[in-house]
Design a protein that fits this description.
- The protein is an alpha/beta fold and about 575 residues long.
- It folds into four domains: about 5-175, Rossmann fold, CATH 3.40.50; about 190-260 and about 285-320, Helicase, Ruva Protein, domain 3; about 335-370 and about 375-390, no CATH class; about 395-575, 3-Layer(aba) Sandwich (Rossmann fold).
- It is about 40% helix and about 15% strand.
- The chain is built from 23 helices and 17 strands.
- It has helices at about 5-20, 35-50, 65-70, 75-80, 90, 105-120, 155-160, 185-190, 195-210, 215-230, 240-250, 280-285, 290-300, 310-315, 330-335, 355-360, 365-370, 410-430, 450-460, 470-485, 510-525, 545-550, 565-575, and strands spanning about 30, 55, 70, 85, 95-100, 120-125, 130-135, 140-145, 160-165, 340-345, 385-390, 395-400, 430-440, 440-450, 490-495, 530-535, 555-560.
- Helix 1 runs parallel beside helix 2 and helix 10 packs across helix 11 (about 240-250).
- The radius of gyration is 30 Å and the shape is flat.
- The protein starts with 6 loop residues before the first helix and ends with a helix.
Length: about 575
């Protein structure tokens, strides 16, 4: 007997059909990490699109001229006159634009994409050219963010009708993927319009779900129309509204009404077995639309993904990204910084270094010019672009051994060392974070901050005693370092320990397994390219701490031999430069 189809996957396949039916009128945010489930969903979407609809991938770090269009430099040099080149958005006209790692889109890029979504055209006025291209595209934002503040730009997410979460869908669910239906008839048919009552219901539901966006109800109505056309209906029904609200409004909800008759874990023993006689009369009276809202909300609640209703009932808001999120890395995508010379390159991917370009072209002019020619002939080989260096923000992560093996006086010395290093980080305007490990686990005592006062307060309240879960401490520091890298910052880990682990990664005591787990975590940190410094806090230098530093590809420093000046110098050397 085969297992029942996964309801989230079935809903995801329906969402793919609706996006394929009307890409520009819908759009979708898909929260899913790279893997078979996401690839299967994208393949299902491609199978549903028309054969002539382009499917284009838009990298998060794309430059403006590649996105919008600009000067075709080789063609311009060949013809001697400005030649325009269409950008990625214009070339994707009539199709779907897939954006992997959408949470890394910069604010400027997101704003330009949003403008094109609103107008359906790309206007280019730069480099001596003026062009206008149609660019009606459907947006598929692939959200791979791990942190709560790692999400696609709010302006683009608001313009995407459907929000989908595939993270909990198992690979086994793919066996129940429906055969892609033929959407040609639905595309050719006249779509039903949504009447005033449907609009009133959708707006009322949006208000009760705490959704402030004015786009959301409009997008829900568009999805309801698409669902009706997909089902072959000539009018929008409750089933279409329920499907649209489940795909568009429910993922945006900030709360869930408690009076819809849907169970959220409360005791309903006292609920009346039958409604009062006058309730049927009320349904047709002035409060009829509110009854419709309750009925549709109850239907939507029955089809919500597991856990979503409980989170909404608990008041948990949807994920949003912080204003600083979405950078793909300051050094990689920046077009500003300190110039440090020039190099051969394409001006579309950097700033043209005019003087250096002319200097490179000058020696060849006698060979390139014909008789009587006075103009300057420049080829693509002559082009030079600026080399820019921008200092990346550094986050110093202190991972402190607060276990019983760190005697109280040694822990006090470690705190003193950390406090002196905090002052150095403050001078450099680094962000600092504090991870402490003791007992059976590691705790993040201080999230990355520039506040010296908060850092000192967290350090002062650092408790001591218990086992030494060294592997857990290194893993916690590594995860935090990875999150900082995704935010475009350069992390450096300062590990203060004597290296004598006695709690394994599983939480069970045992020195041999604990030491093995700690070395494995250290090697993983080194493989990820995280810079680190190991400060041995034991009264005498420990071989275990040296071995840990070697596995971590980190510098080793013994606390008894480390005065404030040496510590400061070591941290400066460990910190990334740039």
């Amino acid at each position: 007997m085969s297992a029942a189809p996964d309801p989230v996957w079935i809903q995801a396949c329906l969402a793919a059909a609706l996006v394929a039916l009307d890409p520009t009128g819908t759009g979708i945010v898909v929260r899913a990490r790279p893997g078979p489930v996401r690839e299967a969903w994208l393949a299902h979407l491609r199978a549903l699109l028309p054969d002539d609809a382009p499917v284009t991938r838009l990298p998060a770090s794309i430059a403006d001229d590649a996105l919008l269009g600009g000067l075709d430099l080789p063609a311009t040099l060949r013809t001697g006159r400005p030649v325009a080149q269409a950008g990625l958005l214009a070339r994707g006209h009539g199709g779907v634009m897939v954006v992997p790692m959408a949470e890394r889109l910069g604010a400027g890029t997101a704003a330009r994409i949003a403008q094109v979504l609103d107008t359906g055209t790309v206007e280019v006025a730069r480099d001596g050219i003026a062009a206008r291209h149609p660019a009606r595209v459907g947006l598929v934002l692939l959200d791979e963010g791990e942190g709560e503040d790692e999400a696609p730009p709010a302006g683009l997410a608001d313009r995407a009708a459907i929000h989908l979460d595939l993270d909990a869908v198992p690979s086994a669910a793919l066996a129940a993927t429906p055969t892609p239906p033929d959407l040609a008839a639905a595309r050719a048919a006249a779509w039903p319009s949504a009447d005033g009552e449907a609009a009133e219901i959708v707006c009322g539901v949006a208000a009760r779900l705490g959704i402030a966006s004015l786009r959301a109800p409009l997008l829900a109505l568009q999805v309801a129309r698409a669902h009706a056309a997909f089902a072959g209906r000539d009018a929008v029904t409750d089933a279409d509204l329920s499907a649209a609200i489940g795909l568009v409004l429910a993922p945006r909800a900030r709360n869930w009404p408690q009076d819809t008759g849907q169970e959220t874990g409360q005791d309903t023993e006292d609920a009346p077995a039958e409604p009062p006689p006058e309730e049927e009369g009320d349904r047709a009276g002035p409060t009829g639309p509110m009854g419709d809202e309750d009925r549709i909300l109850a239907a939507v609640a029955a089809s919500l993904p597991p856990g979503l209703l409980a989170r909404l009932a608990a008041g948990e808001a949807p994920r949003t990204r912080s204003p600083g999120a979405g950078r793909t890395g300051a050094a990689a995508a920046a077009r500003a910084g300190r110039p440090v010379g020039a190099r051969p390159g394409d001006p579309r991917r950097g700033r043209l270094a005019l003087i250096e370009t002319l200097q490179a072209a000058a020696p060849w002019q006698r060979l390139r010019r014909g008789e009587g020619e006075a103009g300057l002939r420049i080829t693509a080989d002559d082009l030079r672009i600026r080399r820019l260096v921008q200092r990346r923000e550094t986050t110093t992560i202190f991972a402190v051994d607060a276990s019983g093996s760190a005697a109280l006086e040694r822990l006090a010395e470690a705190k003193g060392a950390v406090e002196s290093l905090l002052a150095e980080c403050y001078v450099r305007r680094d962000r600092v974070a504090l991870v402490a490990f003791r007992g059976k686990e590691a705790d993040l005592l201080l999230a990355p901050t520039r506040s010296l006062v908060r850092a000192k307060r967290a350090l002062a309240s650092l408790p001591g005693g218990g086992g030494t879960p060294l592997a857990a401490g290194i893993e916690a520091a590594g995860k935090l370092a990875a999150a900082e890298r995704r935010g475009g910052r350069s992390p450096v880990v300062l590990l203060l320990t004597d290296g004598r682990a006695n709690i394994a990664r599983s939480g069970q005591p045992g020195r041999a397994q604990a030491a093995s787990d700690a070395l494995a975590a250290a090697r993983l940190l080194a493989a990820e390219g995280t810079r680190a410094l190991v400060i041995d806090t034991a009264a005498r230098p420990q071989e275990a701490a040296r071995a840990l530093a070697a596995a971590m590809a980190a510098r080793y420093l013994a606390m008894p031999q480390a005065d404030a000046a040496r510590l400061t110098r070591a941290v400066r050397e460990a910190a990334p430069t740039g």
